[in-house]
Amino acid sequence: MFKTITEGKAKVKISDQEKISSDLPVFYNPKMKLNRDISILLLKIIDKTEIQVCDPLAGTGVRSIRFLSETGEKIRSITINDKNKESFRIIKENLKLNNLEEDERIITENRDANALLLESSGFDYIDIDPFGTPNPFLDMASRRISRDGILAVTATDTSALSGTYINACKRKYWARPRRDYMMHETGLRILIRKCQLIAAQYEKALLPILSYAKDHYMRVFFKVAKGKAKVDEVLRHHGPFNEAGPMWLGKLADVKLLSKMYAVAVSQHYDIDYDFLRLLKEEASFGVIGFYDVHALSKQLKIGCPSMEFVNSKLKKAGYTGVRTHFSPYALKTEMSKEEFIQLLKDKKSQSL
Ligand SMILES: C[S@@+](CC[C@H](N)C(=O)[O-])C[C@H]1O[C@@H](n2cnc3c(N)ncnc32)[C@H](O)[C@@H]1O
Description:
Blueprint: E1 2-7, E2 10-15, H1 33-45, E3 51-55, H2 62-71, E4 75-81, H3 85-97, E5 106-109, H4 113-118, E6 123-128, H5 135-144, E7 145-155, H6 158-161, H7 166-173, H8 183-200, E8 204-214, E9 217-226, H9 228-235, E10 238-241, E11 244-248, H10 255-267, H11 274-284, E12 292-293, H12 294-301, H13 308-317, E13 323-325, E14 328-333, H14 338-346, H15 348-351
Parallel strand pairs: 3-4, 3-6, 4-5, 6-7
Antiparallel strand pairs: 1-2, 7-9, 8-9, 10-11, 12-14, 13-14
Bound molecules: S-adenosylmethionine.
Residues 27-28, 32, 36, 56-60, 62-63, 82-84, 87, 112-113, 129-131 line the site of S-adenosylmethionine.
């Protein structure tokens, strides 16, 4: 059975089962609203117009319906596909529910995503939002994304990427993960490198313009650039960190893009998690890899845990910047060495400052 809900400007029929699993007759996860909010906001603010969009794993079609209702005229065409027959039926119903059934920009398909991409002439924006790993779709998406397009990738197999299953990560992502307090940043960087390696074969350089880890998933938006030199430059930024990897050691996001997204969201009263967006924006302004988790380190050192404000003021006094990270509420990114940071935590005198 189905029920109708509203998300953003879309009305969508979804399965009325409470438990979210890939066994749902038609998949919809309310927890992924933020994933969709950020995608729509990004399309809203980029300079491109006449965008050819492909949503090859569309589920209920909610993402595409929101692209159409919330980014409006920017879209030249949108291909909404799902290989599941019931999904395909619901996508059509949902288009009707939103008065979009006669919109000539929309193409609906009920095919395997890879076959659809292979036989297409390419897209400016492809959104890979699978169950688990994006691996099966990376090759074809890399081939069909346009030379200055945007490729969006979600991965929900975070247990492999974050080091619960080391061998699974090595097999699927060709890198060693590490299960410690930095595991989500490590996993995200490993995912980025894997996508870049696949696209490199087609002389396409994938540069992350926005990436994050949240709840049970990781998400990356890549800007595509074509050419051997650009690909070689990307590959130069692969390497180990913190006894894990190889991984992407470059920037995780573009601060200008995030500042614009934040400003537009505020000015248009967009319904989004502003605290999260602000964290991403602040973090993007500071290109340091990794962070120090004050809670985890205090526990390891068996000392009382100081407040974040306190640690931050100590960092400032020592001449360093401390920036909060979305990867952990108890962590700071800073250029200070780990030894110095530990000393700062241990320093008893400083506790009374
Ligand atoms: C995580 S759900 C997509 C959710 C949707 N993008 C959203 O934002 O709500 C993944 C979808 O991919 C579809 N799918 C899985 N394998 C596929 C394939 N090879 N080709 C096309 N669709 C596929 C499933 O039927 C499912 O609806």
